[in-house]
Design goal:
Mean pLDDT of chain A: 93
Distance between the termini of chain B: 10 Å
Structural class of chain A: alpha+beta
Oligomer: heterodimer
Order of helices and strands of chain B: HEHHEEEEEHHH
Low-confidence stretches of chain B: none
Number of strands of chain B: 6
Helix content of chain B: 40-55%
Number of helices of chain B: 6
Largest sheet of chain B: 6 strands, mixed
């Protein structure tokens, strides 16, 4: 299992669209991927699961990936979240 | 934040009727207007449809969460439509939708946190086993609110 810590950078936070992107990204890997915020951990297996986190801008998230491609999965998640889900230009 | 206290009974429609995605969105915005209006319905419908173009909010399992932020909206507004017959909504799993939670908030970023909290609460309820089935069995707004109250108490 690998872990990465990442900060939500887009000001809208992890709303429905980013949650969809995360769930879609998870489906491309064989590893299972979880996100942890404060004490709450959700598996990125569906949009609804991810949205339960209510991760606002500047929230710190821990990415946990476990499986054969865990390194690649964790890296891809880190990148997507750090890039603000492509929403960084919007104010 | 208690969802049951945020949804006006007039913003709930059991036996919600819609022939397709666009009609469903217009119908939900109409519910918002009825409960919290007057609102600029055309502008909100446009904002929600723009959002849908990025990615469908049909999140699977017969549920959709169409949402947007729009000018002139003063608070995070929620409407709930429970359709008698399922509506094709281009859902991510291809399944037609019967439960529609619409969430429309102000452009002001101060409300962003509220909107995320509302979305998170709705997601948690929808992930609760039996909640969707219970909603589908409700006959009117009072029953829906009672159902939401019960499940909210269950998830704390």
């Amino acid at each position: 299992m690998v872990e990465r810590t990442v900060v939500v950078r887009n000001y809208a936070g992890v709303h429905a669209r980013p949650a969809s992107m995360l769930a879609e990204l998870a489906s491309r890997f064989q590893s299972r991927v979880w996100l942890v915020k404060d004490e709450q951990q959700v598996e990125c297996d569906s949009v609804l699961s991810v949205m339960q986190l209510a991760a606002v801008c500047d929230s710190t998230l821990i990415i946990r990936a476990d499986g054969v491609d865990e390194e690649e999965a964790a890296h891809a998640f880190e990148q997507l979240i750090s890039d603000g889900f492509g929403e960084l230009e919007k104010v | 934040m208690r969802l049951a206290e945020r949804i006006h009974p007039a913003a709930i429609a059991c036996g919600f009727l819609a022939g397709g995605k666009q009609e469903a969105i217009a119908g939900l915005v109409n519910l918002l207007d009825r409960a919290y209006g007057p609102l600029d319905q055309r502008a909100i419908v446009r904002a929600v449809l723009n959002r849908e173009e990025l990615i469908s909010t049909g999140v699977g399992g017969g549920v959709a969460l169409p949402h947007a932020r729009a000018d002139g909206v003063r608070d995070v507004l929620v409407a709930l439509g429970i359709a008698a017959s399922a509506v094709d909504f281009d859902a991510q799993d291809g399944q037609a939708v019967r439960i529609f939670f619409m969430i429309v908030g102000p452009l002001d970023r101060v409300f962003q946190r509220n909107q995320l909290e509302v979305e998170a609460k709705i997601s948690r309820l929808l992930k609760s086993s039996g909640f969707s089935e219970a909603l589908l069995g409700c006959a009117d707004a009072e029953q829906v609110l009672a159902c939401i109250r019960t499940y909210e108490a269950g998830i704390g």
